[in-house]
Amino acid sequence: MSQNTEYTPPKIWEWNKGNGGKFANINRPIAGPTSEKVLPVGKHPLQLHSLATPNGVKVTIMLEELLALGISGAEYDAYTINIGEGDQFSSGFVDINPNSKIPALMDRTDGKEQRVFESGAILLYLAEKFGKFLPTDPAKRTEALSWLFWQMGSAPYLGGGFGHFYAYAPIKIEYCIDRFSMEVKRQLDVLDRHLADNEYMAGDEYSIADMAIWPWYGALVLGRVYDAAEFLQTHEYKNMIRWTNMIGKREAVKRGVKVNRAWGEPSGQLRERHDASDFDLRTEDKLNPDAKATEL
Questions:
Q1: SS3 270
Q2: Do residues 158 and 168 lie in contact, with contact meaning Cβ atoms separated by under 8 Å?
Q3: What is the pLDDT of residues 17-73, one digit of tens each?
Q4: Of 122, 129, 149, 226, whose CB has the highest number of CB atoms within 10 Å?
Q5: Which residues contact 290 (CB under 8 A, 6 or more apart)?
Q6: Cα–Cα distance for residue pair 60/136, rounded to 1 Å
């Protein structure tokens, strides 16, 4: 249904707490904590507080890829932040990320505390800390960073734009859906044309650029976000499909998508991760044999 009633903005905008659709209960025009809560601290120097949304999955894929290389320093504790219940507005989380968005990382290596927020910044931080998944050749490094920042700038049009108005808005507004559908299809065409001549986003090397783009655009072309694959005819982007399936076959990627996941099939939910054995012993189907598949 289209909204045909013309809207005239008032002279001064006022916050209507009930306006905002599915996420009205957590959206607000102010920053800062709404509750006092100390975040848990695990046994590893790297402490991740996140949720398995596309932005959160970027980081867990990176950490699992580092561990797959045998880099023990990349061991981490992952705690779930339930954004639907407002965990991101607790004082402990805001101390790590004043913007109250997942993911947020605290690095306590050698007794020092370094907070890192914004998923792209976390990927870059980990790549530089461990010297992996970012090409050392200056030209290839620049290409990888260009695509990393492309994703950070482009995905809001996919998520907050298309995803919100197509899947979550309380009313269907034709203009908004058309506007962002056109932009998302343009972005898919950008990626598809690039991948026609490149195995990975930065050329012949798997990098943090792939880890950043795959959870958003790979999930989109496979119909795993917004249930919009048919609507956007994503099967037309053959090079994207090839790249998406290739990345998805990586064992570290298969593990990374499970971490901090609190919906879907119970066997794919690892709400907290503290050790590699957790994938075998602590998924939701193991902890709660009667658990059923749920939606986000």
A1: strand
A2: no
A3: 766 667 777 888 999 999 999 999 999 999 999 999 999 999 999 999 999 999 999
A4: 122
A5: none
A6: 23
User: CA of 280: how far to CAs of 46, 60, 230, 275, in Å?
Assistant: 21, 17, 35, 10
What number of CA atoms fall less than 13 Å from residue 104's CA on the CB side?
25
pLDDT at 122 over 80: yes
Radius of gyration of the chain (CA): 20
CATH 2.40.110.10 fits 138-254, yes or no: no
Show me where the domains of the chain are located.
Answer: 138-254
Token pair of 165, please?
């108005």
Beginning with the edge strand found earlier in the chain, give each strand of the sheet holding 104-107 in spatial order.
Answer: 76-80, 46-50, 104-107, 114-117
H helix count then E strand count, the chain? 12, 4
Q: Which amino acid would we find at residue 268?
A: G
The predicted model gives 196-221 an average pLDDT of 98
Q: Is 90 helix (H, G, I), strand (E, B) or coil?
A: strand
